Amino acid sequence: MQRPTWFLDEADSLGRENTDPEHVARYDEKEDARAAAEVAMLRELLPATTSDVVDLGAGTGQFALLAAEQWENVTAVDPSPVMLDLLRRKAEAALSSLRIVEAGYLTYDRPAASVDLIYSRYALHHLPDFWKAIALSRIRTMLRPGGILRLWDVVYHFPLDGAIERIEHWCSTGYSTVEGGWTRADLEEHVRDEHSTFTWLLEPMLGEAGFAIEESDYDDDGIFAKYLLRAI
């Protein structure tokens, strides 16, 4: 179907850092996706090696490359050409069978009920809430009934009357230089320019899209949330 002219162009929502070659080159040093633990946990839930797995917002492929060692049909999807350039080089060096696709939540297409697992870490927040809901509905359509969505993101879990103090505290934890990791400026940019939402907004979207929340885990500061979701 031809997309309407008002449809969001995800290239405009990538976030400045994801189009910056210097940032992308440092990404794996700054961000540990804990991919080995994630793959091990999901492998218990999805033991068949022939399972069809998609990493949406794959970035530099920390999860996708390890997943491709466990499942035969793994696809890494990301709308950033800069991220994918690095991922392709890593996959080539590893002789990985990983499939790599330049697309996003709103443009990646698969037949309905054809995917067993979709993984999404620190990527959905690039979309405003309306488009998050559209993306979640599209994900549900791709998944088989009973299929898994693993969602891990910056999702705020605190009362509104404490929001300013919580966000200021988070920003204060940033490093002073890029060599240390995520800087205060990085965190401020995230809050100001990206689209992280509250759990009490996201979770109804998940239900409306056709997911049951099997597990939810919020960090103590109320900044990050992990979900294990089943397509119903």
Describe what you observe in this structure.
The chain has 232 residues and is α/β, with parallel strands linked by helices. The chain has one domain: Rossmann fold (3-Layer(aba) Sandwich). Helices cover 37% and strands 23% of the residues. It is built from eight helices and eight strands; from the N terminus they run ααβαβαββαβααβαββ. The chain has helices at residues 21-30, 35-45, 62-67, 81-93, 129-142, 163-172, 184-193, 199-209; strands at residues 52-56, 73-78, 99-102, 115-121, 143-156, 197-198, 211-218, 224-231. Strands 1, 2, 3, 4, 5, 6, 7 and 8 form an eight-stranded mixed sheet that branches. A hairpin with a 5-residue loop joins β7 (211-218) and β8. α5 packs parallel to α8 and α6 (163-172) runs antiparallel to α7 (184-193). The protein starts with 20 loop residues before the first helix and ends with a strand.
Give me some keywords for this one.
about 230 residues, alpha/beta, Rossmann fold, 8-stranded mixed sheet, 8 helices, about 35% helix, about 25% strand, globular
